[in-house]
Specification:
The protein is an all-alpha fold and about 250 residues long. It contains 10 helices and no strands. Helix 2 crosses helix 6 (about 110-130).
Length: about 250
């Protein structure tokens, strides 16, 4: 059985491969709305977007809708789902609420979107760590058997975002650990809460690549990193600007 993320560089902190293995395990399991096979396919398409000529043409165009063509793809996902994955991966800063609302059907709901988004964000985060260190991309995990549980949190409500969110005060007992027991959370985390596993993915990776939620809330701590907190926030801000993240 393949053990993922076996790094030989002693300078790579041990918590990073541990977090990546946990993330791969979440992706490999049947989700809330997607099968495990579909989640692996979504991960694969997030990688395909990197070398997709159609995505490149769209990114260079004044409007992505002005370019006609088809995506480079290698999975059995529908053309619409492939398009969503590729647009998130390559042109996220130009997505809009109107675009998202126009996607929703009985087969592709707001919850399907959130779970898909969680997988794409996770894979891009891990892959860019490898790219930054000149390492080959990690093999995607094998899908586990089972069916999606199709559970929609009862506490999900509109809170001014594009999709409903679940605030800490509205958590069901089954999701009590979603925010690590914190009484408050930022919208950037709650944005994924329509699918609790997507929050889990986000916190697993952000806790290793950035800071744990409790450390984020305390400006006096740096989470035991080699950089001080000011340096961490400077790097985070610069990376966000480079990625056109306007949050």
């Amino acid at each position: 059985m393949n053990r993922h993320f076996e790094y030989t560089d002693p300078n790579i902190r041990e918590d990073l491969p541990e977090a990546y293995r946990k993330a791969w395990n979440v992706i490999a399991q049947p989700g809330f709305w997607w099968s495990a096979e579909d989640k692996i396919a979504i991960a694969e398409e997030s990688r395909n977007a990197t070398d997709c000529d159609f995505c490149h043409q769209r990114a260079e165009a004044l409007s992505p809708n002005s370019v006609k063509g088809s995506h480079h793809h290698s999975t059995n996902l529908s053309a619409n789902v492939v398009d969503v994955v590729h647009r998130i991966a390559r042109d996220a800063s130009r997505l809009s609420a109107n675009w998202l609302e126009g996607l929703f059907t009985e087969e592709f709901t707001d919850a399907h979107y959130v779970e898909l988004l969680g997988v794409v964000v996770a894979v891009i985060s891990v892959d860019n760590f490898h790219i930054g260190l000149g390492l080959p991309l990690e093999q995607l995990p094998s899908p586990l058997t089972g069916e999606p549980n199709r559970r929609r949190p009862s506490g999900a409500k509109p809170h001014g975002a594009w999709v409903p969110m679940v605030m800490p005060t509205d958590l069901e007992a089954i999701d009590n650990d979603m925010y690590d027991g914190m009484p408050e959370t930022g919208n950037v985390i709650a944005a994924m809460s329509l699918v609790p596993d997507s929050v889990k993915l986000l916190l697993i990776l952000s806790g290793a690549q950035y800071l744990a939620p409790r450390d984020v809330a305390n400006p006096a701590t740096n989470g035991g990193r080699a950089l001080n907190r000011s340096q961490i926030e400077f790097v985070a801000g610069r990376v966000s600007a480079h990625n056109q993240c306007f949050y």
